[in-house]
Amino acid sequence: xxxxxxxxxxxxxxxxxxxxxxxxxxxxxxxxxxxxxxxxxxxxxxxxxxxxxxxxxxxxxxxxxxxxxxxxxxxxxxxxxxxxxxxxxxxxxxxxxxxxxxxxxxxxxxxxxxxxxxxxxxxxxxxxxxxxxxxxxxxxxxxxxxxxxxxxxxxxxxxxxxxxxxxxxxxxxxxxxxxxxxxxxxxxxxxxxxxxxxxxxxxxxxxxxxxxxxxxxxxxxxxxxxxxxxxxxxxxxxxxxxxxxxxxxxxxxxxxxxxxxxxxxxxxxxxxxxxxxxxxxxxxxxxxxxxxxxxxxxxxxxxxxxxxxxxxxxxxxxxxxxxxxxxxxxxxxxxxxxxxxxxxxx
Length: 346
Prior knowledge:
- The protein has five helices and 16 strands.
- It has helices at about 5-25, 90-110, 115-150, 155-185, 190-215, and strands at about 40-50, 55, 65-70, 75, 80-85, 215-220, 225-230, 235, 245, 250-260, 265, 270-275, 285-295, 310-320, 330-335, 340-345.
- Helix 2 runs antiparallel to helix 5 and helix 3 packs antiparallel against helix 4 (about 155-185).
């Protein structure tokens, strides 16, 4: 055989042997198909109330709790009296303010009604009397003046009579002015002063009454007393809550989804919910809200393999059926992404 033909054949044989040695026993990698991609998003969550349906009840006052009308797990209705504070000091101040208001109103009525008829009649009688006295003083002055001109009396006697007449005339003018003012009534400025006094007294009464109303603590929502922090005889302050009320019949799940899974599900996606407290049971839910930001994990997962440093997105899941779940209970959720779901854009 020609050596030129044998050399290429030998090269091909060596290449074949090398290929078998390198790739024998190694599994052939197959391209990833859609059926091999993880089909759901799993996470842990906690049961929470709907927004505004869990409130802590306190007071704007610093006072002793006189009476508690509810205990933990008691159902309550909105507006129901749940506690009463000691309001004896406020009641005393209210009585004092009411008395002050009564006095202020009486003074205003007296001023605003003007002078009484008797006062005006008295002023008129006084004017009539002093006018008569002036007439008599003038007559006496005229008599003495005539005697003085005939040189029958001294000048001092005439001067005395003149002074008496002058005093009588001044008294007539004074009484006339008093009568005029009584008939005219009080000044507008005077009435306004007393009106302002009444308004201040009304404000004082309203303020004390509002404080007294605050000693009666009522439920802001309907629900159940889930926590009670204080007891009768203890002091409540504005920064301290007395108890907490929640509507435990209207719950949802707050799930924490790894940020790497955010783009794989959307609003409206169905959710399977399970709990170790109810083994073998699956409850149905739906993704209702996806937070617009990522943050630190708040729920500590039971799975030790979970990366606690990975940031998460808060996802609210609505319950589609009645469940035995309790407020604050931990559950496992499994979101099944749907093609037509509204995805969150990262």
